[in-house]
Amino acid sequence: MTDVHVLEDKSHFHGVWVFLEHRRQGLRDVSVQLIGEGRRISDLRNTVLTGVLLGNRVDVLATYALGYGLDRVIVVDDPLLEIYRSRPYAQVMAQLIRRHKPEIVLYGASKNGRDLGGRLHAILETGLAADCVKFDIDAEGNLDMIRPSFGGKSLAHILCKKHRPQMASVRRNVFIAPPHDPSRTGEVVHESVELGPSDVDATLVDFQEFVREGGLRPEEADVVVSGGYGLRDPKAFAMLQELADLLGGAIAASRKAVDSGWVPKMLQVGQTGMTVRPKLYLAVGISGAVQHLAGMQESKKIVVINIDPKAPLFEIADYGIVGDLFEVVPEMIGQLKVLKAGASGARTAVPAAAH
Amino acid sequence: MRVIVCIKQVPRAQELQVDPVTQTLKRVGVPSEINPPDANALEMALRLKDQHAAEVVVLSMGPTSFDESLERAVAMGADRSVLLTDRILGGSDTVPTAYALSETIQKIGGYDLLLCGEETTDASTGHVGPGIAGHLDLPQITYASEIRIEDGKVRARRTAEDGTEWWETTLPCLCTVNFGCNRPREPTLTGKIRVERGGVVTHWSCADVGIDPKKVGLFNSPTIVAKVDTVRLPTRAGRIFSGEPKETVRQLLDSLIADGVISP
Ligand SMILES: Cc1cc2nc3c(=O)[nH]c(=O)nc-3n(C[C@H](O)[C@H](O)[C@H](O)COP(=O)(O)OP(=O)(O)OC[C@H]3O[C@@H](n4cnc5c(N)ncnc54)[C@H](O)[C@@H]3O)c2cc1C
Ligand SMILES: Nc1ncnc2c1ncn2[C@@H]1O[C@H](COP(=O)(O)O)[C@@H](O)[C@H]1O
């Protein structure tokens, strides 16, 4: 019934592709992590794993990428592909996919990954499942694409049975990066595609990089002290930083605190921010919207400080304090300092979480 | 100048709960709202209307219950609205949705700027906006938090993971708008009166637009939801302390020490 827009008989489609995002001659984390999962899927399907690299002078990077477990890398090298741009990247990917007919294509669920995937799946008229957290192969050999729905309250199994390729995106830090093996060899294939200056329809006129003023990164920290709209102003984050320092952790924030301009965007936890799974997640003045939970609910221990006993975040808390954060946090800092100094001189507060 | 804003009506996310007995989502009786990022897109359009005397047309695809959101959009200041509504659209995934919205946009015609939200709170894919741009072969700028139009050109600020980008492109184009980048205005009295008078929502069927029935609906969607598992989150201690901070903090720290999360 749907044959009108099925690309072709699906038995003609083979192999797993990973779209490789890069920046400053380095692969992005999410792409490296996807190579690991892509390897597992292609082994299950008994097929070849290909990385696709679009850029300008990216040969060295292509060879390096093989070391993460790819069998080959398809490179399209063109000055017009120097930076990510929606239309040329989508044009090139559409041509490559029509030419080589991969069975599965995986993307990072980054801003650019979604920008590209969303455009491409409409052009190719095939399925694209966003933010997958797990993959399986079903009895008929389809990719079972598992993604959270309703903010993680359920997991939906998405299948794309009749259309090929089956496409999916995955957020950063969902899969673990495979080790790099410099001795691994593979093929680097250069492809040419039809692409002209008229395909470039947008110009990047300015870029201001977010700067990190040092400090531990929330994705890497064992303890994350996260602040929300309840903090009322940016100054209160200094208090959270002090608490985080005492616990050997990093600070993070809800989107509402980020959108208020109190902390940089790169500290945002949640559906449209980062995913963290620390040993301790301490949420201060955060209500617990589903989009926030999506980024932290897998933390080992969750501690909530909120003045409102009905705040939804208490529902998934290991421990909680109902109280005014402007009283509770200073008290906590005080008690931790005492612990650290050692009440009798013999006790030192070392965050066990650090080991 | 004509701006078309695509909005979807969604259940209020905060009110969605899993039924403890059946382990399914309780959707009945949950109040609806304009998908929050779409409300930001609409506000963006209304500001462009204030600056450039643009005409703002709001477009949605869904059941007639979506009229509620379209009427609200008009009460906020949109000029008119279109609802693409047809039973055969039921169960469409992002591919038919982007296709059907593109066809409807072409039927409305004469557009300069198309706006979508960054993503919906019920599907959370963010694929429909770029999908429409792909179908219509338009330039696209996603995650825009500011849009300026000068001399027929668009400049938009895009928030990426590692920094803020400013993109420039030509009209017509499609932008998706960042959630929370502005404060959507409240409906006005004159707006409400216009809605009272009626006729602010136009209903179109697929046949009205010329949408190919073989390209929409559940059976023509590339993806299907094969099954849904309820997530049983690990049970947590759930000990909530209240009272004097001195005491509650001591209880908390003692518990964390006892669990070995921090060591004295
Ligand atoms: C498409 C989309 C994507 C989104 N993505 C994300 C995301 O990635 N991450 C994210 O976090 N959100 C995201 N959101 C937003 C989300 O829906 C919520 O709006 C947001 O998480 C709320 O942030 P908050 O908890 O800090 O603020 P609020 O909901 O306003 O909560 C503030 C809390 O502080 C408490 N409080 C106030 N004063 C005190 C005090 N003195 N002491 C103690 N407690 C106090 C209040 O009781 C309240 O619970 C997204 C929304 C949409 C629509
Ligand atoms: N049924 C719909 N009607 C109108 N616009 C929609 C619809 N579905 C999605 N959109 C638009 O596409 C954006 C992204 O949606 P999604 O891909 O579902 O996350 C939304 O913010 C809307 O602007």
Can you characterise this structure?
The relative contact order of chain A is 0.11. Chain A is built from 8 helices and 18 strands. In chain A, β9 (143-149) and β10 (154-159) form a beta hairpin. The termini of chain A are far apart. Chain A has a 7-stranded parallel sheet with strand order 7-11-6-1-4-5-12, sandwiched between helices. A 5-stranded parallel sheet of chain A has the order 15-14-16-17-18. A 3-stranded antiparallel sheet of chain A has the order 8-9-10. With 355 residues, chain A is of the alpha/beta class. Chain A has helices at residues 29-45, 59-66, 86-100, 111-124, 236-246, 255-259, 290-293, 325-341, and strands at residues 16-19, 22-23, 26-27, 49-55, 72-77, 104-108, 128-129, 134-137, 143-149, 154-159, 166-170, 187-190, 202-209, 223-227, 250-253, 280-284, 301-306, 319-322. The model of chain A is unreliable at 1-5 (pLDDT under 50). Chain B folds into 2 domains: 2-220, HUPs (Rossmann fold, 3-Layer(aba) Sandwich), CATH 3.40.50.620; 233-264. In chain B, strands 11-10-9-12-8-1-6-7-13 form a 9-stranded mixed sheet, with helices on both faces. A two-stranded antiparallel sheet of chain B has the order 2-5. Chain B has a two-stranded antiparallel ribbon with strand order 3-4. In chain B, α2 (67-76) crosses α5 and α3 (94-108) crosses α4. The radius of gyration of chain B is 22 Å and the shape is globular. The chains are: A alpha/beta (355), B alpha/beta (264). The interface between A and B is large, with 100 and 86 residues. β13 (202-209) of chain A pairs antiparallel with β11 (163-170) of chain B. Bound molecules: flavin-adenine dinucleotide (FAD) and adenosine monophosphate. Flavin-adenine dinucleotide sits between chains A (228-230, 254-257, 268-273, 285-287, 289, 291-292, 295, 306-308, 311, 324-326) and B (36-37, 118-119, 121, 179).
Question: What would you say about this model in short?
Answer:
The complex is a heterodimer of chains A (355) and B (264). With 355 residues, chain A is of the alpha/beta class.
